[in-house]
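Please predict the structure of the following assembly.
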Amino acid sequence: MTAIPAEYGLVLASVLFMLGLISLLIRRNIVFMLISVEIMLNAAGLAFIVAGSRWGQADGQVMFLFILTMAAAEVSVGLALILQIYHQLKTLNSDEASKMKG
Amino acid sequence: MLIIFYIASAVAVIATLLVITQHNLVHALLYLVVSFLAVAMAFYVLGAPFIAALEVIIYAGAIVVLMIFVIMMLNLRQESVAQEKKWLKAKIVVGPVMLTLVLAGELLYMLSTETSVSLTGEVIGAKAVGMSLYGQYVIGVELSGILLMAGIVGAYHLGRQKKKVTHRFLEKQEE
């Protein structure tokens, strides 16, 4: 049973974060942008878990729980906004929503 | 342990790559479930079984299913896939990918210059997390409760459909 070097966990977290960031930058569909934000939040949580495991403390896992709570609240509000945008504009293109009319 | 971590990370990275290259939303979400499950496996190997269970239940179970329900409510048609293909052109993709790869390369280089530390792999179970959560972090739990309450109220307020009332002569929108 070989131990896992801490850098490998951080490398995995940064690769996942990078993939989420690329997806956020290249997509125009607003649902895909929300998915990318979820991927990035999950990667940030993975970095917290690795750090908590590195020091043998529970704090990293507590921080992951807070990130999880924030992601759940964010996704509910974001999905409600997406529904409203789709009803108003009949498209999921985020560029269409660049003008706010009252 | 190390080989399990390698396999789980490979699955996570491949599934995430497939998520960001899909044109169909539902396919992307199903690959996202696979990615979250692989990350949960990595959490388990890193000595966080409680968080691994929460990842499966909340991320893969609740959040992704919520997104799938909303996509069902949006009632997207087949042309949305074609439109997504039109939006995702190589010309648009190259620039952000190159710049992000430069940043990621810098980050990976900095990680590789650090001295290597192995994780002890000792399991930090639900008891230790709970003691810490309701001990020194109890204010964070209360603030999370307030945040979730704000999320519920905000989602209800934003998601409410305006009811249309048709009068005999005029059509007006009621609040």
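The helical segments of chain B are 2-21, 25-45, 49-74, 79-87, 90-113, 126-133, 138-159. Chain B touches chain A through 83 residues (CB under 8 Å).
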